[in-house]
Design goal:
Elements (H helix, E strand, L loop, with lengths): L1 H43 L22 H11 L15 H21 L4 H13 L3 H14 L4 H13 L3 H14 L4 H13 L3 H12 L5 H13 L3 H14 L3 H13 L3 H15 L6 H13 L3 H14 L6 H14 L2 H22 L4 H13 L3 H12 L8 H21 L3 H14 L8 H13 L3 H14 L3 H13 L3 H14 L4 H13 L3 H12 L7 H14 L3 H14 L3 H13 L5 H15 L6 H18 L2 H10 L2 E10 L5 E11 L1 H6 L1 H34 L1
Antiparallel strand pairs: 1-2
Length: 724
């Protein structure tokens, strides 16, 4: 069939050549005849030569024809297409050799035109191969490799030709040269090993694989080698390859595949060892949840539930929350299948612990997150873990020495100390926590009295009174505060150490002499102890201070003290001294009520005299509401204890309420309109001011006018009714 096809092709070629020759000869004859005719006409008409037309307009035409347009038109008209050559039959060897010669010449011409076009070389070699000219094809491939030895397709075609023609040694030679020249082309190695395995040369294929593995290829190459060994039941060899594989490609998935390989072949101890080696290999810096999930599932298949629980807890304690979602999910499923309620709660606690860990890592000074975290840890953890978290929390000292930044932080120390005392039952560690805290606080800028007082109370609970006093004394010496003095005094009061209380009050009043509460408490202490003279002296010292924060409270306490002692004359003197300092209406009312409650016969008279004196004194007072308050109190007194004459007298003193208008001004001085307000006009003031008398007469006249109009309207209405 091949010879018949070659013969047909040769016959076609020869017919084409004959046609071309005939066409060429016809064209030549026609050209000669045409040239002969021209010569004859030229000879005949020598005397009349036509004039050549001159081009007058040499400007370019409006429509230009480009070379591309000419070629496109030629293509459209198919002027260059030649009819296919007729088929030719090769009948003898001479014609065949002639055909081969022409064909080779064509291939060689193509190669000579462009040596780098590898497809020409391949076509040439495949044509020689189709003629069973294997040696020639080899020569062509070798020449092509000299041109471009990096061309993968060339090597593949060359080796395939040798294998197709069962030239095994030649094929091996080509594959060896290919993998030596281009060792990173995995296709050569795959083809080579496949050929050797198909030939049954297992040792040769293993040798090729070993050469390949020296180049540390991609993962698929190692898997191919392992599968090759497993096809021949070489499990030990496959294990050795896996050992090298996980070193060259140390990915988690490769370790998992190695362990599953061991598990598949029932080497469970080896599989567990592989997992343990993988965990150790990656360490805590490069932990991966997939490794622990696979490890846990392996142990679950082996019914080692305690091991599974330990693996999950170990991983959850070390892997960040956002990277352990799958781990949590699998752990929850495991506990639901094989665990109890305690185990499920442990999972939830672990999840929350991870959340808090992420929060405190993102912002170590988020003390609220630390409080929540510590509350969780305290509820379900051993003391060492709780202490570790507390130490991490208190290590985040506020960067700014301002009290508002320390208020939340200091509660970490307080909770730490209370935990050590109440939960851990370790007094020595509690004392160390308190001491470390008070040393850390910058007392020169601010302090926390709560911390000192808690420390002192702790020492008292431990029956170390000297330690408690030393702590409070140190606090007062370093950073005296009202709360510290009060706490120390309260402690000594509970211990009934009154001399110490006196000394502390003296120090306290030296520190804050304007604090009225301290003076009152000191005096009350002396009163309780029965030393009224000391109490009175303390009150006298107190009211003699140039500056007081609440003087009215102090005076009231002093007056109440004298009333309790039934020293009414001294009380009156106190009221008189107080009225010299202030003319407040409440002082007058209190003075009057004191005189009323004195319980003597002349108490009503004294009380009425106080009211009268107060009214005279407050005539010049600008605050009319206070004067009205005094008169109302006086009227209530007279209604209860006075006569009708006294009541009328007080009623005459009561003011009239008048509505008035006043002009308002804005901040910039412009007019802001008018405002209505109520004013009080006292009769005593109206007598002294004639304008007020005139106003009162005008009001009276207006009232009379309204009454007259009402009387006139009434008869008119009666007449209308009669007419109707």
């Amino acid at each position: 069939a091949g010879r018949r096809a070659a013969a047909v092709t040769v016959a076609t070629t020869q017919a084409t050549l004959r046609g071309v020759r005939g066409e060429r000869s016809g064209r030549v004859d026609g050209a000669r005849a045409h040239s002969g005719g021209n010569m004859a006409s030229t000879a005949a008409g020598k005397q009349r030569i036509p004039k050549v037309a001159k081009v007058k307009n040499k400007a370019p035409a409006e429509v230009q024809i480009t070379a591309e347009q000419l070629l496109r038109e030629a293509k459209e008209r198919e002027l260059e297409l030649l009819p296919p050559p007729p088929q030719q039959k090769i009948t003898d060897e001479e014609e065949l050799n002639d055909y081969k010669l022409r064909k080779r010449k064509t291939f060689e011409d193509n190669i000579r035109k462009n040596r780098t076009v590898i497809s020409n070389w391949i076509k040439y070699a495949q044509w020689e191969e189709s003629l069973k000219e294997i040696q020639r094809a080899r020569s062509i491939y070798e020449r092509a490799l000299d041109v471009d030895y990096r061309n993968v397709t060339l090597w593949l075609k060359y080796a395939e030709m040798e294998m197709k023609n069962r030239q095994v040694n030649h094929a091996r030679n080509i594959w060896d040269r290919a993998i030596t020249t281009l060792p990173r082309v995995n296709q050569f190695w795959y083809k080579y090993t496949y050929m050797e395995e198909m030939l049954g040369n297992v040792a040769g294929a293993r040798q090729v694989f070993e050469r390949w593995m020296e180049w540390q290829p991609e993962e698929q190459a190692w898997h191919s080698y392992i599968n090759f060994e497993l096809r021949y039941k070489e499990v030990e060899r496959a294990r050795t390859i896996y050992e090298r594989f996980v070193i060259v490609h140390p990915d988690v998935k490769n370790w998992i595949k190695y362990a599953r390989f061991e598990e598949k072949h029932s080497y469970f101890a080896h599989a567990r060892k592989v997992y343990e080696r993988a965990v150790e290999f990656f360490g805590e810096e490069h932990m991966n949840e997939h490794l622990f999930v696979a490890f846990a599932k392996f142990e679950e298949n082996q019914k080692e539930f305690e091991r599974v629980r330990v693996i999950y807890k170990y991983a959850l304690d070390r892997i960040p929350k956002q990277e352990a979602q799958e781990l949590f999910k699998n752990y929850t499923v495991f506990e639901k299948k094989f665990g109890d309620r305690r185990g499920i709660e442990d999972i939830i606690v672990s999840k929350r612990r991870f959340q808090y860990e992420e929060e405190v890592k993102a912002n170590p000074h988020n003390y609220d997150a630390w409080f929540d975290y510590l509350r969780l840890v305290e509820s379900d953890a051993d003391p060492d873990t709780v202490r570790e978290v507390y130490e991490r929390a208190i290590a985040n000292v506020p960067p700014i020495q301002e009290k508002r930044h320390w208020k939340r932080y200091i509660y970490l120390w307080i909770n730490y100390a209370l935990y050590e005392e109440l939960e851990a039952k370790d007094p020595e560690r509690t004392r160390q926590v308190y001491q470390a805290c008070v040393e850390l606080i910058p007392h020169k800028k601010f302090t926390f009295a709560k911390m000192w007082l808690l420390y002192a109370q702790f020492e008292i609970r431990q029956k170390n009174l000297p330690f408690a006093r030393r702590a409070l004394g140190t606090s007062i010496g370093k950073c005296p505060k009202n709360k510290l003095f009060k706490g120390y005094i309260e402690l000594e009061l509970q211990l009934r150490e009154f001399d110490r209380c006196r000394k502390l009050y003296e120090k306290f009043l030296e520190f804050t002499p304007e604090n009225c509460t301290s003076w009152i408490k000191f005096a009350e202490l002396e009163t309780i102890l029965g030393d009224t003279d000391r109490a009175r002296a303390i009150y006298e010292l107190a009211i003699g201070q140039p500056r007081l924060d609440m003087p009215e409270v102090l005076w009231k306490s002093y007056i109440d003290f004298e009333i309790e002692q039934e020293e009414y004359e001294k009380t009156r003197n106190l009221y008189r001294r107080l009225l010299q300092r202030t003319q407040h209406v409440k002082v007058w009312i209190s003075f009057a009520q004191f005189e009323l409650s004195a319980g003597k016969e002349e108490s009503l008279l004294r009380c009425r005299q106080v009211y009268e004196e107060a009214n005279k004194t407050m005539r010049n007072c600008e605050e009319k509401e206070e004067r009205l308050m005094l008169l109302e109190s006086w009227r209530n007194f007279e209604e209860e204890f006075g006569t009708d004459c006294n009541k009328e007298r007080v009623d005459k003193l009561m003011p009239d309420k008048v509505k008035k208008r006043r002009k308002l001004k804005a901040e910039d001085g412009s007019d802001a309109g008018w405002e209505e307000y109520y004013d009080y006009i006292f009769p005593e003031d109206a007598a002294n001011q004639p304008n007020l008398k005139l106003l009162a007469m005008a009001k009276l006249w207006k009232k009379q006018q309204q009454e007259n109009e009402a009387e006139e309207m009434a008869p008119d209405e009666d007449i209308d009714e009669n007419e109707s």
